[in-house]
Amino acid sequence: MILHYILDEQGLPIPEPDFIKWAQWYDKADRQVAETFFGALRVSTVFLGLPNPDRRSDAVDMLYETMVFADEATLARLLELSETDDRSIIALFTGSIDIQKRYRSREEATQGHKRMCIFIETCIAAGLLQLKDVTEA
Fold it and tell me: How much is the pTM?
């Protein structure tokens, strides 16, 4: 069972069975795929380096993640406006609010980041979401 991944010279995920080597790589690696700000709201997409917790033999590892960082009221409003429930499994169990989407590849992650940003831009443009300015956060 593979527990950790790193990115090779071409930026492709490869298994790293040695935890120490993985941790050293992870500590210094540029894992950022994309980052976009809307005032105090931040959309961040990164390479996780860790597979999803679903360890069924047919599960595909979701090594990339987009998260939305904002105050709780903004996150709740985005979830309200969304057609899907994009909370993490932890948030579902704890009742906390977060927005998280996972992907198999960098290409999927890049497209997912763009879709999330378009969704947020559309909500703002339609007057459905009001954001705090960075100086208010």
Answer: 0.85
